[in-house]
Amino acid sequence: AAMSTSLDAEGVRAAYDDVRSDNTKTQWAVFKFDRQRIGCSASGEDFEKFRAQFNENERAFGYIRIQTGDELSKRQKFLFITWVGASVSVLQRAKMSTDKSVIKIIFAVELQLENISEIDFDHFVSELNKAGGANYGTGVREI
User: Fold this and answer.
1) What's 107-130 look like in SS3?
2) What pTM was computed for the model?
């Protein structure tokens, strides 16, 4: 019988709050599996370091803060990412939907990704803008 997935709720909540806080520089957190337990494996500021956290042979979750808007209205948006690498087994891939329910709180936009090229800052901004409603001003973005 397969063990059910558990959550380091205190560690995950602390990392989530750190990303959401306007008082810290943390822009992202990554959550990975340690056997059957999901916990925060890394957090930081630099997008390339965020991108480097995802490997072809693993499943993970990411949470990232991205500033969107234009010259008249800047706002922070948050994106929850479900990562299933291309080399993950069919069984582990199928288990991801139930494992996601263990960690998922409520996120503005969620993307499920499986190709490292999809972890792209401009793509994330585009998805957040699509979900974000009205944009005011000239459309010139200073991010």
Assistant:
1) CCEEEEECCHHHCCHHHHHHHHHH
2) 0.74
